[in-house]
Specification:
Blueprint (H helix, E strand, L loop, with lengths): L2 E8 L19 H18 L7 E4 L3 H14 L3 E3 L16 H7 L1 H9 L12 H22 L3 E6 L1 H11 L17 E7 L4 E7 L1
Parallel strand pairs: 1-4, 2-3, 2-4
Antiparallel strand pairs: 1-5, 5-6
Helix pairs in contact: 3-4
Length: 205
């Protein structure tokens, strides 16, 4: 049974890092660029002299895609933008700080944090819809890797995507998604199996 190594890199700090960015297309700060470059440089040093990745996948949002283009170009790898790898869409809470939401809709915010599968922000994507979209992305990634006989990919994406995959890999309820960690500019490593089950390997800076 084929297995694929998938290294998910969360984007670094952005101009709207204090908010629920979701699908809002904000830009990386200088610090955010440095976080991601440092993380990839360290990974390359650890794997030297072998270049570990066969292909780069990325969310099309610029906080992921611009760095993905830089790293794919520098490593001479194909870059594939996949819309399914975007962050969860937070509806009316897009680009709003949790402090402001707490002040205006404290009950709904508390319900969302405690039971995100049952309570979504107004006009937002549900956790279940988000899960299906990410599973579609995994299937697309796996199909491409299988077709090209690839074993190892870098995926540049968002905190919610990583948290969802950690929930699935650790067989935790989806209501625990917001309790999972996904640090800015850091890798989380997974093994993707042929049946689309995933195994969490580790987090690394």
């Amino acid at each position: 049974m084929n297995m694929y190594r998938i290294d998910l890199l969360r984007h670094g700090e952005t101009e709207l890092s204090h908010t629920l960015r979701g699908s809002t297309d904000d830009t990386l700060t200088n610090s955010g660029w440095q976080q991601m470059r440092h993380t990839v440089d360290q990974s390359l040093k650890n794997h030297a002299p072998i270049q570990p990745w066969d292909v780069v996948f990325s969310s099309p949002l610029q906080r992921c895609a611009l760095f993905a283009d830089e790293i794919a170009t520098s490593l001479n790898l194909e870059l594939i933008l996949n819309h399914n790898l975007q962050e969860m869409h937070f509806g009316d809470w897009e680009a709003v700080s949790t402090q402001e939401i707490y002040e205006k809709q404290p009950a709904l915010l508390a319900q969302f944090w405690e039971k995100p599968t049952q309570f979504s922000p107004p006009n937002a994507e549900s956790v279940q819809q988000f899960q299906q979209r990410i599973l579609n992305a995994l299937q697309q990634i796996q199909g491409f890797m299988q077709q090209n006989n690839y074993a190892h990919t870098m995926v540049i994406t968002h905190g919610g995507v990583i948290k969802l995959l950690k929930c699935l890999a650790m067989q935790q309820p989806l209501d625990d998604i917001l309790k999972m960690s996904a640090e800015l500019g850091q890798f989380n490593h997974f093994i993707l199996h042929e049946d689309l089950s995933i195994e969490y390997v580790e987090q690394s800076a």
